[in-house]
């Protein structure tokens, strides 16, 4: 179950101590009056990050149209991965890219970028993830990568497409700034997935019926597995998303579409989006206005709340 305490204590997991923590997430509407609905499992009440992964939205399968107008990002990478459907990405660098299932769109915001995502009405099913950039890399120039052919790792009863980082000795060509892993794993039967003991990991079922480390994991919740595991048993038939990485020890501020380090920095990003030229322009309709800042000051927080 999720942690619904109003005043939760910090969860401290000792290195090397595997855990099984189910994060149920919450429903979020994206894109205005005819918004599509996503299930957001990161950030959650008790857990904000898994490695450098700081945001996980899962949507579909649903017949809908994606219509996310131009909006800004800083201090992060966006990862678009589809199970079905297709999405058109446009950004302020001039990129125009259609992404389909089995292909990766990776956008590095760095010091600032803007983009839009659109699709006609069709069956859409996929995930949108963010990776927080470490302090030494968060001012890098913005960039965009599209990878149509990703490497695949194969083992007994599983096949894993490696989106980012490395899994089972197979490395993705996608750019990353911290040690991490992102993979879509197809399982048919009983599989033992190899893991890096120094990483913390989490899994999300995308399709089918799967049991992970004796925990039934339906489509929807995220199962946090902690650190210290060299492998995890998975049984059943379906596809899951595996994310992980070295614990991200820097404190960050996440607000709207920005990742920063202080209230003042987020305030400056918002002002720049509303009035300046830092984020460039995207020729795809009216940009999304920034919401009002909260009345309370935004505070840097660690990977657990």
From TrEMBL:
Residues 39-131 form the Pirin N-terminal domain. Residues 188-277 form the Pirin C-terminal domain. PANTHER family: PIRIN, PIRIN-RELATED. Belongs to the pirin family. This is Redox-sensitive bicupin YhaK (Pirin superfamily).
């Amino acid at each position: 179950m999720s942690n619904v305490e109003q005043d939760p204590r910090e969860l401290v997991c000792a290195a090397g101590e595997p855990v099984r923590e189910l994060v149920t997430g919450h429903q979020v509407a994206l894109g205005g009056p005819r918004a599509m609905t996503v299930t957001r499992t990161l950030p959650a009440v008790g857990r904000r990050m898994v490695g450098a992964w700081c945001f996980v939205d899962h949507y579909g399968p649903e017949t809908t149209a994606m219509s996310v107008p131009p909006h800004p990002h800083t201090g992060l990478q966006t990862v678009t991965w589809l199970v079905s459907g297709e999405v058109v990405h446009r950004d302020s660098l001039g990129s125009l890219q259609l992404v389909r299932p089995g292909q990766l769109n990776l956008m590095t915001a760095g010091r600032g970028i803007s983009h839009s995502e659109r699709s006609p009405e069709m069956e859409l099913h996929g995930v949108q993830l963010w990776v927080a950039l470490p302090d030494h890399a968060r001012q890098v120039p913005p960039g965009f990568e599209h990878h149509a052919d990703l490497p695949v790792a194969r083992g007994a009863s599983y096949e894993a497409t490696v989106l980012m980082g490395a899994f089972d000795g197979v490395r993705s060509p996608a750019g990353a700034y911290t040690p991490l892993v992102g993979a879509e794993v197809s399982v048919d039967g009983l599989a033992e997935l190899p893991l890096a003991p120094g990483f913390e990991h989490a899994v999300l079922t995308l399709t089918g019926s799967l049991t992970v480390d004796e925990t039934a994991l339906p489509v929807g919740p995220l199962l946090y597995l902690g650190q210290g595991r060299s492998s995890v048993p998975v049984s059943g038939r379906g596809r899951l998303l595996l994310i992980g990485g070295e614990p991200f020890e820097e404190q960050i501020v996440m607000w709207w579409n920005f990742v920063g380090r202080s209230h003042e920095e987020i305030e400056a990003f918002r002002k720049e989006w509303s009035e300046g030229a830092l984020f460039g322009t995207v020729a795809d309709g009216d940009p999304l206005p920034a919401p009002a800042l909260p009345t309370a000051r935004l505070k840097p927080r660690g990977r657990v709340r």
